[in-house]
Amino acid sequence: MKRLTERADELLAGTQAVTSGLRTGERAFSYQHRSVRHRLVLDGRGGKQSVLQKDRRDGYILLTRGDNGLYVNAPELGGTAATDFLRAGRDLLPRSRCRRPMTDRTLHQNPEDGPVNWRNAVERTDLAALAADPHFLVDVLATGAGSGRKVRRVQISDVLREAAYTDSGGSWGISVCQGVELEVVVAAGESAAVLSCYATSLDRMDVAGLGRDGALLAGGLQPSSAAFHGEEVTFLPSATAQLLRAIVSSLLRNPMPEGLPDGLEILECGREIDGWSTHAFDCEGTPTGTRELVTRRGQQNPTVTRLGSTAGDGAGDRLTGSAVWDAGYGYPQVGVTNVRLGPTATGADFWAGDRCVVVDAQPLGVENHRSSGHLAFRLRAVRAVDGELAESYLPLILDGDPARILGAVRAVGDVVTYHPGLYSVGGSPLTMSLASS
After folding, report:
1. What pTM does this model have?
2. Which of 86, 261, 368, 413 has a Cα-to-Cα distance from 153 of 20 to 30 A?
């Protein structure tokens, strides 16, 4: 069975080729990113399929000379590509000016600090061994799903993401993030649901919990006539991730420096070991780390890149390592990665007893994030007794601004897994009072 091949050194060589091709008076910053995955698919009849995904690459060159600057979309820099992109950039450079930087802080790591050569893990998932004996994994998922539910399909993916940058001023960096994604399709009656989790290795996952959550989600997709009349609900980790993604998206577009509730914090963890989009630096070469996006005192901290900030002009603000390259816009965007709620009830049992469990939190409309910051969600929910599906409920509606919704949260558990998307979001079980939302 084929294995994924690391090519971080090739990415770095491409960015260094740009520096080598510069002329007198020119300066360049080059960034490259590559992602690839190898999937092992197991169906319910014992069939197996191995699929190697084609590389996905993106990147750019920031070419400057004097007061002129230009972002050149450069998804690959191998072979003669670096020379070709530089030639094309020079033709446009006399008529181009970069947007004025939004910060007076150093853009990239200082050469004196040494290069960045970082990886989140050493061991890789052995898909060949899993293909030879997948029964233990399927059995654990089936046990978690419970009686009366069926595991229809299991997909295990070996995932590799690499990035490299070179600044002609002297600094460079390599970031390698590897992990495994486990995806399961669970059927409950006539309904089926897809759910996944991610970590650096399978032994760092709650595999049985994934089976349980998949069964609850499948149950929530079933038609129902029962209404929930209580106040407190529990969110599946995947539903919490949906909720948090919409809240953070709103806060990035409609910042709330004050007015958020005390007691909850939202963290951005760029180097989270088990994070879906973990990396050592952002697309501008700024080192990542752990920071408070929202503090427990209810304050939203600015998110700052070289070209943008959620705090307005951002003058004097510290770069936060949150720049994301977007070829569609043609320059880096303000973003975040590996965001999560800080736990307030570490080790608590969120499944004991008779509970209303929200299994899906679907945002209603995209314009909410672009106007006043008001959010609305359709919540699919089920009744669960000690984590076992009992019945499904009619959908519920949750609406309000981020402050009101976060203020209704009563307890937050530990992160179970990070979920992919526009940016990676950590899923934690949480309880919420609907009467306060």
Report:
1. 0.92
2. 413
Q: Which two tokens stand for residue 326?
A: 């977007």
Domain borders along the chain are: 232-436
Q: What's the sign of the alpha-carbon dihedral 203, 209, 215, 220?
A: negative
Handedness of CA 163, 167, 170, 171 (dihedral sign): negative
The 10 Å CB-count burial string (b at 16+, else e) for 186-200 is bbbeeebbebbbbbb
Confidence of residue 113 (pLDDT cuts 50, 70, 90): low
Report whether pLDDT(72) > 80: yes
Residues 6+ apart with CB under 8 A from 59: 30, 31, 32, 33, 74, 75, 76, 77, 325
pLDDT tens, position by position, 288-305: 999 999 999 999 998 988
For residues 262, 422, 250, 183, the Cα torsion angle rounded to the nearest 10 degrees is -60
Range in 56-60, 93-97, 366-370, 382-386 the model is least confident about: 366-370
For residue 171, what is the enclosing H or E element? Answer: none
| DSSP per residue, 326-353 | -TTTTS-EE---SEEEPPSSTT--SSSS
Which token pair is 184? Answer: 């399961």
Tokens of 246: 């919409």
* pLDDT of 372: 64
The Cα-based distances of 44 to 186, 262, 293, 367 in angstroms read 10, 47, 43, 41
Please give the Cα distance from 274 to 283 (Å, whole number). Answer: 20
Q: Are 224 and 391 in contact (CB under 8 A)?
A: yes
Q: Return the residue matching tokens 């070179």.
A: 166
